[in-house]
């Protein structure tokens, strides 16, 4: 018997996690019907605004230009990302136990964070489009061909999908010793922290992805500084910059702040922060960009705004260039 015991491997404090508990709502359940009412109003409104911009752009050939197609892509991505959170969130507001299966958790992580990355990729190609339009107007249509537009849109989706697929694989290989996620949804670092062993590989690749996308933001900001200098030379250039680039810049600032909130708090945040504030910081990129993007582009861009009015009120509106 003694020999058999010596041959057995030592027992480890490991468990195969099949279900995660989401504890982000624990301290605010007394207000769940208020949150449910607000979410039931907000989510359909957000879907309506994005779908309106998408349909408007797709139905009117006048809007089949690179800039508008990229705006359409931004709105499609907004619907994609929020679909990974709001339906489950509303269900949790009505349920007593806030749980999610392992597979559901991985899918939620993939959808939410690939959508965030796709936002950055789309804003990057939009910055390139504006650079060509303002700095090389005579060559614009020869550069921004249908093939180039298709490649840009594929880049916006395939790069985040590849990054998130690899990150999900890195999480899948971890043996987890816990099941409680202290957020309203499954978040990649919150799950990785439940690992029984080292998460160095996950950390390294995660930081590479974060630095890459923050690098995109810095590159876009510098490109706009260059465009501002170019646009000062003519009234037409200044008008084009204000009309098309300022909304883009607002969208970029918004998604960057939201990304910073999520990354900094999930990795370095203190549990002493009130849960309501922690929840807002975790939700900022799922609350603001999906509604702001269709509004600033749908209402600010004259061409899109007039076609939206025409779509709903059947008025014959002359489209101004």
Please explain how this structure is put together:
Helix content is 73%, strand content 3%. The longest helix has 34 residues. The protein is built from 13 helices and three strands; from the N terminus they run αβαααβαααβαααααα. It starts with a helix and ends in an 8-residue tail after the last helix. α2 packs antiparallel against α3.
Keywords summarizing the entry:
3% strand; mainly alpha; 73% helix; disordered C terminus; globular; 13 helices; three-stranded mixed beta sheet; 321 residues
Number of helices: 13
Order of adjacent strands in the largest pleated sheet: 2-1-3
Report the mean per-residue pLDDT as an integer: 82
Number of E-type strands: 3
Low-confidence stretches: 1-15, 315-321
Q: Tell me the series of helices and strands, N- to C-terminal.
A: HEHHHEHHHEHHHHHH
The biggest sheet, with number of strands, parallel, antiparallel or mixed sense and barrel status, is: 3 strands, mixed
Radius of gyration of CA atoms, rounded to a whole number: 23 Å
Tell me the fraction of residues in β-strands, as a range. under 5%
Structural class label = mainly alpha
Inertia-based shape: globular
Helix percentage range: over 70%
Determine the N-to-C terminus distance: 88 Å
């Amino acid at each position: 018997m003694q020999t058999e015991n010596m041959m057995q491997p030592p027992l480890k404090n490991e468990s195969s996690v099949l279900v995660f508990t989401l504890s982000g709502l624990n301290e605010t359940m007394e207000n769940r019907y208020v949150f449910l009412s607000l979410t039931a109003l907000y989510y359909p409104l957000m879907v309506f605004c994005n779908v309106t911009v998408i349909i408007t752009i797709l139905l009117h050939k006048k809007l089949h230009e690179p800039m508008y197609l990229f705006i359409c892509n931004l709105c499609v991505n907004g619907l994609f990302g929020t679909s990974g959170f709001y339906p489950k969130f509303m269900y949790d507001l009505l349920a007593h136990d806030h749980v999610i299966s392992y597979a559901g958790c991985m899918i939620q992580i993939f959808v939410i964070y690939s959508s965030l990355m796709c936002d950055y990729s789309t804003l990057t190609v939009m910055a390139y489009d504006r650079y060509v339009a303002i700095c090389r107007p005579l060559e614009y249509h020869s550069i921004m061909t249908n093939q180039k537009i298709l490649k840009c849109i594929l880049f916006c989706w395939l790069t985040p999908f590849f990054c998130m697929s690899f990150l999900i694989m890195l999480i899948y290989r971890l043996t987890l010793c816990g099941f409680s996620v202290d957020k309203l949804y499954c978040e990649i670092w919150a799950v990785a922290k439940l690992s029984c062993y080292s998460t160095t590989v996950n950390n390294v690749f995660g930081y590479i992805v974060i630095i890459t996308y923050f690098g995109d933001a810095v590159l876009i900001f510098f490109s706009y500084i260059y465009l501002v200098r170019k646009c000062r030379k003519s009234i037409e250039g200044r008008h084009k910059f204000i009309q098309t680039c300022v909304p883009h810049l607002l969208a970029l600032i918004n998604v960057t702040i939201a990304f910073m909130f999520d990354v900094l708090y999930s990795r370095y945040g203190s549990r002493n922060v009130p849960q309501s504030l922690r929840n807002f910081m975790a939700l900022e990129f799922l609350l603001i960009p999906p509604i702001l993007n269709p509004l600033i582009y749908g209402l600010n861009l004259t061409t899109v705004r007039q076609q939206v009015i025409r779509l709903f009120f059947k008025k014959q509106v002359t489209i101004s260039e």
